[in-house]
Amino acid sequence: MSRSSDYISGILSGALVGAAIALLYAPDTGKNTRDRLSYKLSNYYDELNELIDQLRAEKELLVSEAKEKGDQVVLDAKEKAEGLIKEAEDLLESIETAKKAAKEQG
């Protein structure tokens, strides 16, 4: 996400620097310069909105992937826990069997 925020800051700072330079060196009338500036700012605004939409889509994808991975981790943990419980039950059963055998001999 840092890469995206750097990209957005670069676009905004580039737009501001470009606007300042355009105003300082404009050979055209004030109205034409304002119209061009307004057009460029409108384009930058549209680009920024597109980037925001892309970031939202990426966020949704990442959240979805993270949720899937989290669900898989939970499933894996449940399976391992069930395996450990089964092993513990088998061990308890073996101990009980050994106790009964020891009582019968003793």
From TrEMBL:
InterPro entries: Desiccation-related_membrane, YtxH
Keyword set, alphabetical order: Coiled coil, Membrane, Transmembrane, Transmembrane helix
Membrane-spanning parts: 6-26
Keyword Zinc: no
Coiled-coil segments: 41-105
Keyword field contains Coiled coil: yes
Name of the protein in question: Gas vesicle protein
Organism for this UniProt entry: Gracilimonas mengyeensis
